[in-house]
Design a protein that fits this description.
The structure is a single chain. By secondary structure, the protein is of the alpha+beta class. Helix content is about 15%, strand content about 30%. The chain has a domain at about 45-165: Jelly Rolls, CATH 2.60.120.10. It has 4 helices and 11 strands. The two termini are about 25 Å apart.
């Protein structure tokens, strides 16, 4: 089964998720990854002051799960990507800029980031970190060969649009 390109069909891809070649739980891909086993992404891959730890050993095929911590008073980078993302706020208070909308959030809230929208998340506390459980369908888009991400660093939306263009995919 082709995972992208010539010979790829969505029906074959979706039908193949349950086949023997799909990732199955085992010692290298367990059904439980404990908090102490989360793998922190290297700072040079994050592009902002956040700490991103991935539960990458879980046997998920189509989505990725992270624990994201934004230090007090800081923010994530201004970015956009082809995948959808949902952040569950484990703890903290802050706000997010998603394109031209700004919305406040706090512990227990969910934040939705649509595909290919400029966005940035801010921790409004001067004392406490903000922590998210982040779930995104980036693995699925990677399998399809259409995943893409752009980071404008600690820029504003206007600066990101100027640098990358408003709509270029």
């Amino acid at each position: 089964m082709a995972q992208s390109g010539a010979g790829f069909t969505l029906a074959d891809f979706l039908g193949g998720l349950g086949d023997a070649d799909a990732v199955q739980p085992g010692t290298s891909r367990p059904v439980v990854v404990h908090a102490a086993e989360l793998a922190a992404l290297p700072a040079d891959q994050v592009h902002n002051p956040s700490v991103l730890s991935v539960a990458g050993r879980l046997p998920t095929t189509t989505f990725e799960i992270f624990r994201q911590t934004i230090p007090p008073g800081l923010s994530s980078d201004m970015q956009r990507h082809h995948h959808e993302t949902v952040h569950y706020v484990i703890s903290g208070d802050g706000h997010s800029e998603i394109e031209d909308e700004t919305a406040a959030w706090s512990t227990g809230d969910f934040i939705y980031t649509p595909p290919w929208t400029w966005h940035r998340h801010y921790n409004d506390s001067a004392d406490e970190p903000a922590q998210f459980l982040t779930i995104e369908n980036s693995r699925l888009l990677g399998l399809l060969g259409v995943g893409r991400r752009q980071s404008a660093g600690l820029a504003t939306i206007a600066e990101a649009r100027e640098r990358f263009g408003k709509d270029s995919a």
